[in-house]
């Protein structure tokens, strides 16, 4: 993964967002990540396990690529 290219792509995607609500959520998420909290810490133990399994699946090539533009439809 080219982390710099990913950061640039995130910046591009963020600049295309016109919803104040979404911008606030993105900012909150990024801020919480910078404070060393993770989404996984807020999940139930069962959901944490499922998240870890999903990450492992993706790392093993079992993921499905979805273009970000398709998520925001």
Overview of the molecule:
With 73 residues, the chain is an all-alpha fold. The protein has a domain at 29-60. 64% of the residues lie in helices and 0% in strands. The protein contains 4 helices and no strands. It has helices at residues 3-15, 20-34, 45-59, 68-71. The longest helix has 15 residues, at 20-34. The protein starts with a helix and ends with a helix.
Q: Secondary structure elements and their pairing?
A:
Blueprint: H1 3-15, H2 20-34, H3 45-59, H4 68-71
Strand tally is: 0
What radius of gyration results from the CA coordinates?
Answer: 14 Å
Fraction of residues in H or I helices: 55-70%
Number of helices in the DSSP assignment: 4
Strand content bin: under 5%
Averaged pLDDT: 82
Q: Which runs of at least 5 residues are low in confidence (pLDDT < 50)?
A: none
Structural class: mainly alpha
* Cα shape: globular
Distance between the termini: 26 Å
* Biggest beta-sheet profile: none
Succession of helices and strands: HHHH
Brief characterization of the structure:
This protein is an all-alpha fold and 73 residues long. The protein is built from four helices and no strands.
Using brief descriptors, characterize the structure shown.
mainly alpha; 4 helices; 0% strand; 73 residues
């Amino acid at each position: 993964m080219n982390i710099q290219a990913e950061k640039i792509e995130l910046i591009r995607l963020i600049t295309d967002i016109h919803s104040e609500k979404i911008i606030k959520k993105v900012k909150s998420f990024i801020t919480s990540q910078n404070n060393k909290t993770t989404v996984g810490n807020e999940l139930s133990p069962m959901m944490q396990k499922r998240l870890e399994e999903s990450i492992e699946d993706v790392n093993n090539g079992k993921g499905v690529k979805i273009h970000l533009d398709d998520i925001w439809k």
